[in-house]
Specification:
This protein has 228 residues and is of the alpha+beta class. The protein is built from 3 helices and 13 strands. The strands form 3 sheets. Strands 9-6-5-4-12-13 form a 6-stranded antiparallel beta sheet. The protein has a 5-stranded antiparallel beta sheet with strand order 1-2-3-11-10. It starts with a helix and ends with a strand.
């Protein structure tokens, strides 16, 4: 009887170890999702379908991400084409937004989801606290529907106030392919662990230098949510 128990005990330990190793391996495997946006829903790609391809994996201390957007024009004038990410950093199960039914004030201090802003031009991205997804439909905010914003304003003083940290990333643009953003995000600064909801947006600022400038620029933002 003791012999049988010993064999059973070893077997259980072996299974547990294999399961642990498998879970660790799966956690570090790249995952992949592609979002598509038809011509009538966006103007990031003129007369075509816009795609936003996201790859990610969780390492013990970082979230690795690669984001590809097939933007068909390289914005070297406004220097503001960027990807934006929002994380459930307050761990309440919801991504903060101003969709109907989500009650918060634009000046609230008790909301603390963290956002990432990565413009293509300088190869670095910033992590800011107190961020949210802007879904306003009035004239003042229409141009940023679906984009990630941070509270109060976008002036330099506000940026410094909510800035947590800046990291180096990489971004390249290839004709016929679009942008490729690569990030290695320290988990401690976004305060989440998988599985977790993630909002991602890409803002194409080409409308800024159009004549006449569009009053509604919401079609120059593509966005989606997924479980990371």
């Amino acid at each position: 009887m003791n012999h049988k128990f010993a064999v059973f005990y070893v077997t259980v330990i072996s299974v547990a170890l294999v399961g642990s190793l498998s879970a660790s391996h799966l956690n570090q495997t790249w995952k992949h999702v592609v979002f598509t946006f038809p011509p009538e829903a966006q103007k990031v790609v003129e007369n075509g379908t816009a795609t936003m391809e996201v790859k990610w994996r969780w390492l013990p201390e970082t979230l690795e991400m690669m984001v590809k957007v097939n933007d068909d024009d390289f914005d070297n004038k406004t220097c503001c084409d960027e990807i934006e990410l929002l994380f459930d950093s307050d761990n309440n199960g919801n991504l903060t937004s101003n969709k109907p039914g989500q009650h918060w004030s634009y000046f609230s201090e008790d909301i603390n989801d963290h956002g990432i802003f990565f413009p293509y031009y300088n190869g670095s991205y910033a992590v800011l606290e107190k961020c949210f997804v802007l879904y306003d439909t009035d004239n003042y905010y229409t141009g940023y529907s679906g984009a990630v914003q941070f509270f109060r304003c976008r002036c330099l003083d506000c940026w410094k106030r909510y800035l947590l940290v800046v990291f180096n990333g990489s971004c390249i643009y290839r004709e016929g392919e679009g942008y490729t953003f690569k990030l290695s995000i320290p988990i401690e600064h976004i305060n989440v662990k998988p599985p977790t909801p993630i909002h991602i947006a890409f803002t194409d600022q080409s409308f800024v230098y159009q004549t006449p400038r569009p009053l509604d620029s919401s079609h120059y933002v593509i966005f989606a949510e997924f479980t990371g």
